[in-house]
Design goal:
Layout: E1 4-7, H1 17-32, E2 36-39, H2 53-63, H3 87-99, E3 103-109, E4 112-116, H4 119-128, E5 131-135, E6 142-147, E7 151-156, E8 164-166, H5 174-184, E9 189-193, H6 200-210, E10 216-220, E11 223-224, H7 240-245, H8 250-258, H9 273-279, E12 290-291, H10 294-307, H11 310-321, H12 331-342, H13 351-359, H14 367-374, H15 376-388, H16 397-411, H17 416-427, H18 435-442, H19 444-453
Parallel strand pairs: 1-2, 9-10, 11-12
Antiparallel strand pairs: 3-4, 3-5, 5-8, 6-7
This protein binds one RNA strand through strand 7, helix 5, strand 12, helix 10 and helix 16.
Length: about 450
RNA sequence: GGCCCGUUCGUCUAGUGGUUAGGACUCCAGGUUUUCAUCCUGGCAACAGGAGUUCGAUUCUCCUACGGGCUACCA
């Protein structure tokens, strides 16, 4: 049988990292099995709709290459794929349930819901009254169901109240729409968040009422805040767009969230799409929640950044530096700068800070740095370098190394005593690129200008 | 409160009826880099607790504790 999975977000905002992980697992599982991945929009709460959210969601999902085979804008095989466009489908189904006595209506009177169990009366009242539809939960029954990860789960139905399946505005609730659609869209595996586990018996019961075979259920462990509560805004970013804006690479994000709740048997940490596809297995999904640890993401992101070809790195960085009005005409310098940067950042939004000293004639204000460059020995060293760096001479790595050695011999100093003042003057910081790199990026003219500018 | 789910280093996790309980991130130390970062090496650090089953339990069962989720005309 063809494997069919779905991702079914509500258009209440941007794509959430938890949502992205759910989408990813659904996608990978279907693709691994040569199956079909479906996108369905669950917009049955008219109060929480956010403008353009559907477009945004679709854009985000596609930008991570989680290409769905069926969805609102592609391949309408079992469409429409937007729930608000399926109201008539839900209607025939709930009418069916009422007729079968599996559901009943309640007339809305102010804050009260008054049930009407008599069929004739009910259909009559429905003509000119506001009503909701409730599912009848059988009493005195233990419902036994199954989650592929957790095994058998039992629920005492006496503890569950009759849930509303159709709201008074005519829209279905999640519980109802979700079951109807998963069935009609021939979904074989429902992979969704653990927060749905408590309502599983309602869903199973609905399948029963219609006489349908339910799909397999896999309830994913939750993504957690550092304090172990369900991942939310307030304690950091949750929108994938925010991560993109900070310069996390898509591949790194995918890799990282894939490992939040899943890991194969070996010690590998870095996974491409291909290896994810190859290694993924539902059996290896974790049961307990996973804290979203930004430090590990940062590390992983830096790994992905370092692996990039310089050309690709520059290309991906474009929107993080293009707004700066620096003169990037000197391509040789430009490449050298980025080569240097690539090894030192873990997020692309850190690029401007590193670009700054190379492209802007900064002044040094920090007390500590000033006191270093103003010391007698520093001034002597800087003057010595200014004398020895001569334009039109070949200033290569060897030359700079020799000059460092000379300086050490001449002034009887070494290490930081030499490097700090020079680097502060040329780069604005004690630490950073080695002197040869620095000089070769700045060029001899600018190097000398910076050296001279602080000479007393 | 009730119901459901969960519990291996601080974090993400591997693993097994008998292991020195493995890896990664973080942190620390050393080396390389006459700075820093990178890189390399090493180190710290975990089976929630109690019963039971068993020759032997981190692993199987039960209980407790703790954590989380759900408990809407939201998903």
């Amino acid at each position: 049988m063809e494997i069919r999975t779905r991702f079914a977000p509500s258009p209440t905002g941007f794509l959430h990292v938890g949502g992205l992980r759910t989408a990813l697992y659904n996608y990978i599982f279907s693709k691994k099995n040569n199956g079909v991945f479906v996108l369905r929009i669950e917009d049955t709460d008219q109060n929480r709709l956010v403008e353009n959210a559907i477009e945004q969601l679709i854009k985000s999902i596609r930008s991570f290459n989680l290409n769905f085979d069926e969805g609102p804008d592609i391949n309408q095989k079992y469409g429409p794929y937007i729930q608000s466009e399926r109201l008539n489908i839900y209607k025939t189904h709930y009418i069916d349930l009422i007729k079968k006595n599996k559901a009943y209506i309640c007339i809305v009177k102010g804050n009260e819901l008054i049930p009407e169990y008599n069929l004739d009366k009910a259909f009559n009242l429905m003509q000119k009254n506001q009503y909701v539809v409730k599912l009848k939960i059988p009493k005195n029954r233990l419902l036994s169901t199954f989650d592929e990860l957790r095994g058998k789960i039992e629920f005492d139905l006496d503890l569950i109240e009759d849930p509303i399946i159709i709201k008074s505005d005519g829209y279905p609730t999640y519980h109802f729409a979700n079951v109807i659609d998963d069935y009609l869209m021939k979904i074989t595996h429902v992979i969704r968040g653990e927060e749905w586990l408590p309502s599983l018996p309602k869903h199973i019961l609905l399948y029963e009422c219609f006489g349908w075979k339910p799909p397999k259920f896999i309830h994913l462990p939750l993504l957690l805040n550092p304090d172990k509560s369900k991942l939310s805004k307030r304690q950091g970013d949750v929108n994938v767009d925010d991560f993109l804006k900070k310069g996390y690479l898509k591949e790194a994000i995918i890799n990282f969230i894939a490992l939040l709740g899943w890991h194969p048997s070996d010690d590998v940490e870095i996974f491409s799409y291909k290896s994810l596809l190859k290694n993924f297995s539902i059996k290896k999904i974790q049961k307990s929640g996973a804290i979203f640890d930004i430090k590990k993401l940062n590390w992983m992101n830096s790994v992905y950044i370092k692996e990039l070809e310089l050309k690709n790195f520059i290309e991906l960085s474009e929107k993080f530096y293009s707004h700066l009005n620096y003169n990037f005409e000197n391509k040789n310098k430009f490449f050298k700068v980025f080569e240097f940067i690539q090894n030192r950042i873990d997020r692309l939004d850190q690029i401007p800070d590193f670009l700054y000293p190379f492209y802007v004639d900064f002044t040094i204000n920090d007390e500590q740095l000033l006191s270093i460059i103003n010391s007698d020995i520093s001034q002597k060293i800087i003057r010595y370098w200014n004398m020895n760096l001569i334009e039109n001479h070949d200033i290569d790595e060897h030359f700079v190394k020799e000059l460092i050695k000379d300086t050490g011999d001449k002034f009887d100093v070494k290490g930081k005593t030499i490097f700090y003042p020079l680097r502060i003057v040329l780069f604005g910081k004690k630490d950073g690129p080695d002197l040869f790199t620095l000089i070769s990026i700045l060029g001899i003219e600018k190097t000398k200008r910076r050296l001279m500018s602080i000479l007393r």
